[in-house]
Amino acid sequence: MVKYKLIYFNSMGRAEVVRLVFAQAGVEYEDVRIEKANWPALKEKMPFGQLPVLEEDGRLLAQSTAIATYLASKFGLNGSDDWEAAKIQELFGATSDLVNHAIPFWTTSDEKEKKKLMDAFEKEHLEPLFARLDNVLQHNGSGFFVGKKLSVADLNMLCIIGLFSSMFPNTGAKHPHLIEFKDKIMNLPNIKKWIEMRPKTDF
Domain residue spans in the chain? Predict the structure, then answer.
């Protein structure tokens, strides 16, 4: 039996989509949460000096998208064919770009600068992407982002829509289809169970 260990900090962050894949698949794993004070001593042991990292029977795999889609392929959550798998990668790329654009306001300690950066982020990046995601979801017509069944793309969108609609409720309110989608995925039995039992942390 394969033994999985997911290594990340004690937060949701870039590892939560991987945890959701495990939850939906009903596959057991060790959820290792590193305290930031202990990170410097472990950093050089990680493939690229970053987290999350998946350990599978002693082998290490880094980068959250690689981990999530690798596991999704094993657990039947990475689309029905190569085209759908590519469309899933496309959506991961779009949301990764969004998160990268958010880093400046997450990392500044100046409140005036943070407000300025958040306003610019919402107008220049979040609103346009939410509009495009809304179109993708509606155009696909199945209630999922890719294909006709649940995929890791939907689990990733749960994280992205959930985070940014809570931080920017005005933008979220403009896209009720996305909010309805988020709520639907949150209430899938295995996902709901995980959300109820997971450690309570800031994102």
Answer: 4-76+190-197, 82-188
Sign of torsion over alpha carbons 98, 101, 103, 106: negative
State pLDDT tens for residues 7-40: 999 999 999 999 999 999 999 999 999 999 999 9
Q: How far is CA 192 from the centre of its chain?
A: 16
Residue 7 burial by Cβ neighbours in a 10 Å radius (0-12, 13-18, 19+): buried
- Is CATH 1.20.1050.10 the right assignment for the domain spanning 82-188? yes
| CATH class of the domain whose range is 4-76+190-197 | alpha beta
End-to-end alpha carbon distance in the chain: 32
The model's pTM: 0.96
In whole angstroms, give the CA distance from residue 159 to residue 115. 23
